[in-house]
Description:
heterotrimer, A: alpha+beta, 3 domains, 5-stranded antiparallel sheet, 12% strand, B: mainly alpha, Hydantoin permease, 77% helix, 0% strand, globular, transport (chain B), transmembrane helix (chain B), transmembrane (chain B)
Amino acid sequence: MGLADFLFNRRKHKNNNKITAEELFQQENISKKYYKSLDKNIKQIQELFEHSFDFTVDKIKLGDTDACVCYLGTMLSKDTLTNKVLNSLHPQNDHPKPKDINSIRDNYFPTVSYEYADTFHTVVWNVLNGYAVIMVDGQGKALSLEIGNIEKRAITEPSTQTIIRGPKEAFTEDINTNISLIRKRIRNPHLKFESFYVGRDTKTHLVIGYMSTITNADILEEVKKRIEKIDIGGVLDSGNIEELISDKSFTPFPLIFNTERPDSICGHIMEGKVALILDGSPFVLTVPSVLTDFFESSEDYYQPFLMSSFVRLIRYMSFMIALVLPSLYVALSTFHQELMPTQLLLSIQAQREGVPFPAVIEIFVMELTFEIMREAGVRMPRAVGQTVSIVGALVIGQAAVEAGLVSNVLVIIVAFTAIASFVSPIYNFSISTRLLRFILILFSAIFGLYGVLLFLIVMVIHLVSLRSFGVPYLAAVAPFNIKEQDDIFVRFPIWANRKRPSYLYPESPMKKKGKNIPSPPPARGGGK
Amino acid sequence: MSKKLVENISLWQLAVLMFTFEIGSVAVVGVGTDTKQDAWIAVGVATVLGAGLVWFYVYLLKQLPGRNLFEMITFCFGKWLGKIIGLLYVYYFLYISARVLRDFCELITSVIFENTPIEVISITMVGICAYMLYLGLEVFGRTGEVFIPYVFTFIILIGLAILFSGEFQMKNLLPILGDGLGPILKHVFPRLLTFPFGELVTFMVIIPYVSHFAKAAKVSVFTVLISGFIIIYGTVIEIASLGARQMERTVFPLLSAAREISLLEFIERVDLVIVFVVMFGIITKVSVFLFGGLKGLEHIMNIPYRYLVFPVSMIIGYIAIQISANNAEHIEEGIRFIPLYMHIPFQIIIPILMAPLLIWKVKKQKRRSDANGSR
Amino acid sequence: MLKNRMIRVVTFTFTMIFSGLLLMIALIDMFIWQQSFYQCVSKLFALDEGANEGYVIATAAAGFIYSIASDYRIRKKKRSQQS
Lengths: 528, 375, 83
């Protein structure tokens, strides 16, 4: 009912691409009418903002008409307010007598950006967004002046996805800054940003960015449809959005890509994906995403292609290591000793001799310990952070071995696995690896190597059944496409990469036409 | 009532499935062991014949584009007789899938994982197949695509590893055609033709869902030739490393051959690799047969096959154990009964009987629709 | 003809396939080992000492229960469609 109207009305305004305050406050018990009488309006708004210390109504006189300025003192910069608005309203300024609201704006605030509010909803919405609203007695609409300029965090280096070579900017919590970071990189009128508001209570600003000439229209339509379906009280981070719009929740694998690097987002937009930017979150999402996206860092494109191909293969390898190494150890040391080369077997067994636990328990305890230390390391206050490393490395690692509780080989395996699991450039993905690792250890403890194979096959079946916004999650590998292989496991030189990924069905599939292979100039004067 | 599946698989996926299907079982039990050192020649002959057989199957499918084996049978034999023949096919497919599953269970329990109960392996394997088929034909095709590079490279690498280990003795292949062509031909028909190649009759259920149906014939014949080539490769390796005598005695020749590998004194037991190849091959094979049976049931019972996936596959898990008391009995049945009384009627006789009926009926239908169109 | 029996179709299919395949195994055993029909059937249902046949029997039973459950589901779906 309420939601249906909400969606229906949203559709009606689709073309002008602007959400009006009416739609946002529809379900709430706020009266819509803006009165001509100033007193009624003041009463109305003061009732609404009751018990908010930062809400101010300044009563003033414009000539001989009553008027008032109302604003939320915490949502705008007081300096700007004084300079731009309050000063020019000062009675000493001898402006001609105002006739209507238009002439008031012309005379008093010719340089401030503004908006007229003809409903009470709009007034409230503008106040909430940091406008100073001037209401004049006897006028049918109010004048909202944009002040803005509240404090925000400066653009810093990315803290979760660091690279060596390449741009060092990261997104911040402010949506306008984030959009400008993208616009700065793609100067193209076809780069569109459409705005949505999500969350019944928080009314958070969500912007989708895409290239209208590249992105497939069906995918775009699907994204909009899913955003409009969102029905939730509050949205605080793009992680909430991710869970609400992804194709399937019951999977350990992330179906939506997130990053705080503007260059990486731009790369995705240029391939034909849609970016979702949420106000208040430095992590921007792109859809649709495929598995291989999570193994690509934007730095791959800034380093020589041979090097980045090698690094990419290392990433895939370390994914496999992080997944199966502990369980292989369990399976080989408990069930299939005969499969190990004799020398290796002897040295492993010699070390395990004094260990009182079976290999499963041993590795489970150590992996769990590592997870606890990792979690503690993340949550701990910075000042005591060093303690974790000392306690972890010395006490738990060395002491456990010396006390004969675990074997040396096992510590090596746990440590190597841990490091390998952090190689994926996107943190989300390493979470799924860690989760699956524990299940895999259990399987190998029950069924041995057969269990490992069993689990891997089930995992692959699960992976190929996944879809992200209609695109198969393993696209370019399964369904296999030979033409896409120039940017999957290895990266071909950038001049050879002429096509956008075909699994995204881009409107314009070619990035460029010619092949401009760099080559030395023809030798001068040599041959005649 | 039953919803039509709109799922499609690509030509490449079809080829992948056919390839793994072909080499799956062969990698477990080995073929042509009766013909001793000439086994590879027998396989070669069977490959060529098998390619012809597959071409014939696709030719039949081309008469009625978009209809699978069961719909074709109903079209040819009428509603009631068609349903009965279709049901016989369903039993045949399900029985063979249980047999294939048993092959694998025997391999696993007798050679590698001696301590695992055979029942557990049967249940888990059939569980995987059920899960995959429940997710649909598309997922099946894609899973094949993910694993095919490993399957292919592992098979090639095993051969090379045996070669470099110095276990490859050409003299084991001699004398070529020592006993003449007679025994080879006798072995090719019925056993070799029906066992890896004739079983492709199941693909008559899958090929109609290929997206570029027009090219299906070419691709399937080509795939059969390629997989025949790989089987020959495997057979040559087995003969050359084990010798004809020993090969006759071992139950799982490829595995025995792989145990000869010893490289750098480090890579010694590559059993796991073989098991992986075999496991995936078996999963494909069981799933293809299971899919054939389920599609048949869907057609006969008129309900979407997804409802039947779990119940029927659990039956398969049970039957695979009950099918015979022990491995010897299982193999005996496979040699004496199955090729003659099951493979030949279902793979060759019924399709051949169906061919003239089908062509005649299609012509009649076309004439009628032409007459309708001109009016 | 199946329309009136439609509501139990999965269970029906299950029993049909199950008994059909068992019969087939018994017949093949009869043919190969030249035993009587009774001998073969009793061999099928005999539980070997020490074997874990309980597992597969349990799975088959689970399949049977699943088929009853899915029949129930189909019927419920159909009823909700009609109303």
